[in-house]
From TrEMBL:
Its cofactor is Mg(2+). GO terms for biological process: glucose metabolic process; purine ribonucleoside salvage. It comes from Coemansia spiralis. It is found in: Cytoplasm. GO terms for molecular function: magnesium ion binding; phosphopentomutase activity. The keyword Glycoprotein does not apply. Keywords: Carbohydrate metabolism, Cytoplasm, Glucose metabolism, Isomerase, Magnesium, Metal-binding, Phosphoprotein. Belongs to the phosphohexose mutase family. Residues 491-510 are annotated as: Disordered. GO terms for cellular component: cytoplasm; nucleus. The lineage of its organism: Eukaryota, Fungi, Fungi incertae sedis, Zoopagomycota, Kickxellomycotina. This is Phosphoglucomutase.
Length: 635
């Protein structure tokens, strides 16, 4: 969910030059003032429209955008008004908010420090105590401190692994988790009510009496808490394991070094060109360890030194990635789901080592992540839940389970985000690094690899093969048409049950919803495999055993029946299908990019890799040709 800040009257009725005049009257940053003034002088109304007309949206991750002048971008003015509105909302909604205080941190990106100082300025002006990390730091430091200090909220200035011209304003609530609806809407409304920038004087903000530098105290507490995840300190200290680490030009290096020391593990071998923070990310096309080629430099260092393991954080160190050389000499680049399975198994072992009953252990992952975690829970007996995509959902789910007496042991999303242990209610690449290298050290002592450990999980829980990708579709109307065709076939009001589509391949059954009054005609099969489950979070529909209930016949759904348990959002598309061959497909639109994303997985309970690969290939082809009709729609 994203809510427009609607700064002042930036509506279509206001002439663009009036908006430019307003900006120039409010902005005190010479650089961004100059950007707008030059556009005014040049008469570039098109660019002015793109910068000023549509205000930046406040979503469930806060703000994130390109750093540039204008109400639609991230800059000093939009940071000030966001902070004013957030401070007013927190003061109103959180008990004892002023004395409990706010935590503020920042990474190394351009303008991150000044954005953090302006954020502090607004909270101080409201009377808040401010807990501050003045140095460059990883994102997990803020949610950790909120929880540890019982602060009222927190703000981290970071754009994670976005391109160098972006920055972000990430907001956490009093429980230490990212905000979720309806908090985002409430904060956005408060920003609209406090949208005149009041105070730009942040030069000496760090020396004010109500500001507390918590770097040393919180980092000491963070590493102490992480030691609960140390499994075998003697083995860690004795290991001969060697490995290469890269922070991807980000802030992670000193924090990675210290977590490894806390675990008693040997230091890493650095990638010299990527070891220091650099906001321009000069050696990578995209500063994201997931991207193809992002770890090539680290692998080259490993090859040169005869090392078989590479580990990495993204620039703000909340994500973690790893690659391992296998017996055949090739590199295994672990997928996000494979790492999730490895971490889950390690967490289960560690919780048993600590004496935590399986029934009291809780693990979660996002609904687009692998179902291996669910299979593990069914076999081992721990509590499992899946959530919508994003750690705001997973962390809040784990926070709620903690209140019910569960140990919040693990949460992950396939986009290499891992919450290992309960010390941080967000993804934490630093702790994940320590736990992973510890496991690698154990495998090394046994003459094995982490890849072998993953194979053990496949043997126990079944083989899971995945294919996640996307189609670029810059036309929103075409995207809507594609999803309408998936839901309704050729016509919303088609009356012929079990009718073929015009291509003669996709067979559909009619599901008549008497309440909403539309006729759903989802595909009966995907890649020839019967569809047994459908969940549509755009229109609010969920049904199991669809093939048995439909069987080619018309189904009448009464008002209120088959409502999904997850929140429904009509503003975006998200449909999940499951098929009788162990397939699961989720298709959704991206909130930030012109993409139709899909997440496809096949489970083979016999651990038959060849059969799983064949099924996966058939379903990938079906996504392109039967569902989105990529060629016809020129995707």
């Amino acid at each position: 969910m994203a809510v427009s800040l609607n700064c002042k009257s930036t509506t279509s009725a206001v002439p663009i030059l009036k908006l430019a005049e307003r900006w120039l009257s409010e902005d005190k940053d010479p650089e961004t003032r100059k950007q707008i003034q030059l556009l005014v002088d040049a008469g570039d109304d098109t660019k002015l429209e793109s910068l000023l007309r549509q205000p930046i949206e406040f979503g469930t991750a806060g703000l994130r955008s390109r750093m540039e002048a204008g109400y639609s971008r991230l800059n000093q003015l939009t940071v000030i008004i966001a902070s004013q509105g957030l401070a007013a909302y927190v003061e109103r909604e959180v008990p004892n908010a002023l004395s409990r205080g706010v935590v503020v941190g920042h990474d190394h990106r351009h303008n991150s420090n000044v954005f953090a100082q302006l954020t502090m300025r607004a909270f101080l002006d409201h009377g808040f105590k401010v807990y501050f990390y003045p140095g460059l730091g990883p994102t997990p430091q803020v949610p950790f401190a909120i929880k540890h200090l019982e602060a009222a909220c927190g703000v981290m200035i970071t754009a994670s692994h976005n391109p160098k011209d972006d920055n972000g304003y990430k907001v956490y609530w009093e429980n230490g988790a990212q905000i979720k609806p309806p908090l985002d809407a409430g904060i956005a409304q408060s920003i609209r009510e406090n949208n005149t920038p009041k105070n730009w004087d942040a030069a000496s903000v760090e020396s004010e009496t109500n500001v507390v530098d918590v770097t040393e105290s919180m980092m000491n507490a963070y590493y102490k808490a992480a030691q609960s995840l140390v499994r075998n300190p003697e083995l860690n200290r004795a290991t001969k394991l060697k490995y290469v680490y890269t922070p991807m030009h980000g802030v992670g290096a000193p924090f990675a070094a210290r977590i490894l020391e806390a675990f008693g593990l040997p230091p890493y071998i650095p990638v010299p060109e990527q070891a220091s923070p650099d906001p321009d990310f000069p050696t990578v096309a995209f500063p994201n360890p997931e991207e193809k080629g992002a770890l090539d430099m680290a692998k080259a260092v490993a090859d040169k030194q005869g090392v078989e393991l590479v580990v990495a954080n993204d620039p703000d160190a909340d994500r973690f990635a790893a690659a391992e050389k296998q017996a055949d000499g090739g590199w295994l680049m672990f997928t996000g789901d494979q790492l999730g399975s490895v971490f889950a198994a390690a967490v289960l072992e560690n919780s048993r080592h600590q004496g935590i009953p399986d029934a009291k252990l809780a693990m979660v992952n996002s609904t687009v992540s692998s179902r291996m975690l669910k299979a593990m829970a069914q076999k081992e007996g721990f509590h499992y839940a899946d959530t919508l995509t994003g750690f705001k959902w997973m962390a809040n789910e784990l926070a709620a389970l903690s209140k019910q007496g569960y140990y919040a042991g693990f949460g992950y999303e396939e986009a290499i985000g891992y919450m290992v242990g309960n010390q941080v209610l967000d993804k934490d690449g630093i702790t994940a690094l320590g736990v992973f290298v510890q496991l690698a050290a154990r495998m090394h002592a046994e003459g094995r690899r982490v890849g072998d450990y993953l194979e053990e999980q496949y043997a126990r829980y079944g083989y899971f093969a995945s294919a996640n990708s996307y189609f670029i579709c810059p036309d929103p109307q075409k995207t809507n048409k594609i999803f309408a065709h998936i839901r309704y076939g050729d016509s919303k009001n088609a009356s012929s049950s079990d009718k073929d589509d015009d291509d003669g391949r996709v067979r559909r059954s009619e599901i008549v919803r008497t309440g909403p009054g539309d006729v759903l005609r989802y595909p009966q099969t995907i890649g020839g495999f019967p569809v047994c489950y459908i969940r549509d979070l755009t229109i609010g529909f969920e049904m199991t055993d669809v093939d048995k209930k439909a069987a080619g016949e018309r189904i009448v759904v009464k008002a209120g029946e088959y409502k999904p348990t997850f929140p429904v959002s009509s503003g975006s598309h998200m449909i999940t299908f499951e098929t009788r061959n162990g397939g699961r497909l989720t298709m959704r639109t991206s909130g930030t990019e012109p993409k139709i994303k899909y997440y496809l997985e096949i489970r083979n309970t016999d651990n038959d890799r060849i059969a799983a690969a064949k099924d996966l290939a058939r379903m990938v082809d079906a996504v392109a040709n039967e569902l989105v009709e990529a060629s016809k729609n020129e995707l």
